[in-house]
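To close the chapter, one final illustration. This time we ask the reader to focus less on the individual chains and more on the assembly as a whole: which components sit near each other, and how the overall shape emerges from the parts.
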Amino acid sequence: MAMTHKARILAAARKQAVDKLPFGARIDVWYNYHSSHGTLPEKYKGCNMVEILRDQGAGAQVRHLRIWRVEYDNLEVVIHEDPPHKTTEWRTPLGTVTMKTIFTPQEGPWIVYEVDHPFKTKEDYRVIEYILENTRIVADLDEYHQKERMAGEDGMVMTGMDLYSPMQAIMRYWIGYERFFYELHDNPAQVERLYELEKELAKQKLQILGDSPVEMPLLCANWSDEFHTPIFAKYFIPWLREASDYLHAKGKVTHVHADGEMRRLIPLFLETGIDVAEAWSPVPMTRVTTAELRKAWGDKVTIWGGIPAVLFEPQYSEEEFDAYVMNLFKEISPGYNFIVGMGDNLPFDGKIERVGRVAELIDKYGRLPLEV
Amino acid sequence: MVDYSAVQQAVIDGDDEKTVQLVKEALEQDLNPADIVASGLQAAMSIVGSKFSSGEFFVPEMLLAARAVTKALEVLRPRLLDPGTVTIGRVVIGTVAGDIHDIGKNLVSMFLQGAGFEVIDLGTDVSAQSFVAAVKEHNPDILGMSALLTTTMPGMQATIEALESAGIRRQVKVVVGGGPVTQHFADRIGADGYGADGGAAIELCRKLIKE
Ligand code: B12
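The assembled structure is written out below.
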C-alpha cells in the first residue's frame, strides 16, 4: 500500500526511506485572503484548506500556533480592541506595560504582528520580569485535536513551542528587534535576566510538548542571517540543543520554520540538533540555493520547502515554474531527507493549480532515488 | 589631540559613549565641527556600510554604529555655525502601503542622517497619497521608499504614478530598496535609483544630489 502524505513527511523527517518525494504544501495566506474576499475558485467554495490540497494531490500543512496557553497570577490583563489593532495592557503592582498588535487575516496573515512592544524604557524591566515570574503555562490541546482530525492522513498539524525560542521572545515580542540590540549592548544583565525567565517558561512548554501526541514539534520561527547570526552561538544553540535532546528522548523529531535569509546561519544550524528546517526559501527569495544548502548539510538535516513563494505568482510562466521544480529535483538528487514545499506560503495572487502541478511532477519524476 | 581615526573607531565599535566623549574633546580643542562630521562620523559610516556589504558586519553592528553617530550629531549640531553645513540634502522616506517592515528603512534613514542628510521619516504602511502630500509639504530632494514584500512592491510604482498625476514627479528623485527590490525593478517602474543597503543608499543619494 502506498504511504499517506503524513507518513511520507514523517518518514523523511525521521530520515527513513520513502517511496517518492513527500509534498507538504502551505496555502493559508491564499486561502484566508480568498475566503474572506469571496474569491475562492468556484469548485473550492465551502472547502477547507485540506480539502483543496487533497483535490490538488498535495499533502497539507495546517498551522496551529500552540498547544498551551498562558495564565497569570497577581496581575491584570486589559485588552482594548480597535480592529485591526488590539492593545494589551499588563497591569502589575510594579507598573503597567502595553503592547499594540495588528491582525488582518482577510489580507492573508494567520497571526498578529506587534507594531509596538511592551518594553519602552529601562523602568519596564522590573514590570516584564514580574509578568514572567507570574506566568504559568497550561496545556490546551482541544483545538489541536480538532485540526488533527481535519488534517487526518493528508497532512501535518504544524505546532509546538510557538514562534519564539526564549531569546527570540525577548527580541521580537517584549522589546522589538532594534531596541533589543541596543539593550543587549547597554544592559546585558537585565536582558539576560529576562532570557532566564523565558527559559523557565519554555521548559514548561517543552514538558507539555513532550507529553503530547505532536510528532514533530516546532521549536521556533523566522530567523534571519543578518540579525541572528552574531548572537546565535550564545543564546540560541544551547537552548535549541537542550530542547531537541529532550524531545528526542520522548521519541519526537524537531523542526524550525526557517524562511529567512540563512547564509551565515547554515553552519551554526548543525549544532542545534534540530531535525527539520521547514519553509526553506531559496533564490530568488533569499541568496542561497538549495544545492548549496544540501551540500552544507548533507543528510544531517531534512529540508522542507524549496519552491519560493514568488514562483507561484503570475510573473513566472508555467514553463519557468516547471523548469524551477525540475531543477530542484536535480539539486536534491537522490532526494532522501527532503520534503517538497513552499517558502513559505502560496501568495494571495499565486496560482493554486501550480500546487497540483508540483504533485504531478512528483508523480512523474519523484520516485526515489531520483533519476533526473 | 583627538585624531579622527579614534572617532571613526569608536563609531565602528558601536561605542556611543566614547564617540560622544571624543567629539566633545574635539570641540574643546577647537577642531572644526564640520570636519569632525566629515572626517570622523561620515567616514566611519562609510566603513561600517562597506563592512556590512562585504558580510563582515551584521544588523546589530550597523544599528549600534548608527546610534553612536546620531548621538554625536546631537552634540555637534548647536556648535555648527551654519546648521545647514551638515545638511547636504533633504530626504523623505517611508515603507509602502500594506507593509510594516521598517528595520531596513530605519537603518537607511540613520545612515543618511549620519552622512549629513536631513531625513523626514513617514513610518510604515505609507500610501501613495501620503507620499505625495509629504513631497508637497517638505519639498525634499529625494523620496525613498522601502518594501519587503513582493505583494507591496507595486506600491512604489503607484507612488511614482501619483507623483506624476500631481505634476511633481520631476521635482524629486525617487530611490527604492528593501529585500525583494532589485535594480531591474527600479528601472522598470521608472525610479531614479536603487540601493542594496545603507552604505549603497548613501552613495546613491550623494550621486543624485549632485546631478
Ligand atoms: C523581521 C521580519 C518581519 C517582522 C518585521 C519587524 C519590523 N519592525 O520590521 C515581522 C514579524 C513583523 C514580519 C511580518 C511579516 N513578514 Co517578514 N520578515 C522579516 C525578516 C525576518 C527580516 C527583514 C529585515 O528586517 N531584514 C533586515 C533589514 C536590514 O534588511 P532590509 O529590510 O532588506 O533592508 C536593507 C536593504 O534592503 C536596504 N533598504 C531597505 N529599504 C530601503 C529603502 C531605500 C530607499 C534604499 C535605498 C535601501 C533600502 O537597506 C537596508 C539596510 O541594509 C524577513 C526574512 C529575512 N530577510 O530573513 C521576513 C520577510 C521579509 N517577511 C515576509 C513575510 C511574508 C511577512 C508576512 C507577510 C508574514 C506572513 N506570511 O503573514 C508579515 C507581513 C506583515 C506586513 N504587513 O508587512 C517574507 C517576504 C516574502 C516576500 N518577498 O514577499 C520574508 C522575506 C520572509 C520569507 N522568506 O517568507 N516580518
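The mean pLDDT of chain B is 92. The domain at 4-80 of chain B is CATH 1.10.1240.10 (Methyltransferase, Methionine Synthase (B12-binding Domains); Chain A, domain 1). With these observations in hand, you are ready for the problems at the end of the chapter.
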